[in-house]
User: What shape does this take?
Amino acid sequence: MDLAPPDLADLRKAKALLENPGMAARITHLIGMPIEKGFRFLPANWHAKIGGLTQAALLKAIKVAVFTMKTVPHEEASNTWHKIAVAASGGIGGFFGLPALSLELPASTAVMLRSIADIARSEGEDIRQVTSQLACMEVFAFGGLGQEDRAAESGYFVTRAALTRSVAEAAEHIARKGLAEEGAPALVRFVMIIAQRFGIQVSEKMAAQSIPAIGAIGGALINTVFMDHFQDMARGHFIVRRLERKYGQEVVKAAYQAI
Assistant: This one.
């Protein structure tokens, strides 16, 4: 089955979004220096802390963000308001520096997840469904590696395939018991896999914010880039899912790879 021309154009847009430069490239372009310089200013044990902070932020976000959304499908997403909100949290984080991350990251992650859910709804997802809610969480796993690594290790369909089992287990758990038992193994495994990839972008964000003279204004700008990145990943992801509902996953995957 061939995709209709408007749908093929949408799929081209989705692939262009999903294969855009990652966070490091975007932030480097913003601040005008290689992001690697920022890693010099992070504490020696910083990478060990990232995993715990990102997992905690994701667990809090999954319980809050999606359930504050209106459920009207195909309504236009409110990207600008979400960018303003996450920029404000980034400004606070930039002003107070690394010690504020444990407060700033859960707040900004919740806002980003709400924006992702908003985009999902605008592409026809029923965000009351567990599968759609977990698809929103999947977005944090996309686009986390450098351009040279993406095709081999972090391609869009490769990442989705790696998440398939944990998504199914988490969906079954939530369908039976809801989110009340956030320590349940199935849900924790899913969040851990997402956090491993999301933590890459968090590290890059914090490295940039740790550069002297970035401060509150720089923190706000970096958080805006952070949000913009995940809005792009979300738009691409949910265009693909919309087309999969129409044509089937194998047809869409084949067309995606042929572009």
User: Anything to note?
Assistant: Residues 215-247 form the longest helix (33 residues). Residues 5-258 form one domain.
